[in-house]
Amino acid sequence: MFAVNRLGALGEVAAVSSLWETAPVGGVPQGDFGPMNVPEDSVFVMGDNRNNSEDSRSFGALKKEQIVGQAILIYWPPQRIHLLLPR
Fold first, then answer.
1. Burial of 13 from C-beta contacts in 10 A (0-12 / 13-18 / 19+)
2. From residue 59, how far is each of 9, 11, 21, 45, 53 by CA, in Å?
3. Does the pTM exceed 0.85?
4. Enclosing H/E stretch for 43
5. Is the pLDDT of residue 10 over 50?
6. 77 φ/ψ sector (left φ>0, alpha ψ -120 to 50, else beta)
7. Neighbouring C-alpha atoms within 13 Å toward the C-beta of 45
8. Contact status, residue 64 vs residue 42, Cβ threshold 8 Å
9. How many domains is the chain built from?
10. What is the span of the domain harbouring residue 38?
């Protein structure tokens, strides 16, 4: 979901391939995606395994009202371990 921080003010996302500065472990990312406009009441979600994830690239933007969970902890990479404050 780190890509959400890279969305434009109106929800326009750059081509997903441009979000990667280096190739992920295990090889070069496959395919290209974007641009895509994300409605204000929605979010663009991405899996952590780009080449093998079903995420907004396959099912589209997710309405905020459909989100039922919340991240509480960042544990990777180890030097960035910390609790997230509730919203």
1. buried
2. 22, 17, 25, 10, 11
3. no
4. strand 42-43
5. no
6. beta
7. 12
8. yes
9. 1
10. 2-83
Q: What is the pLDDT of residues 16-52, one digit of tens each?
A: 444 444 455 556 666 677 888 999 999 999 888 878 8
Amino acid at 36: M
The residue among 63, 5, 7 whose CA lies nearest residue 34 is 7
Dist CA 16 CA 31 (whole Å) = 9
- The pLDDT value recorded for residue 6 is 40
Whose tokens are 């902890």? That residue is 73
* Cβ contact 62:39 at 8 Å: no
Nearest to 13 by CA among 56, 58, 74: 56
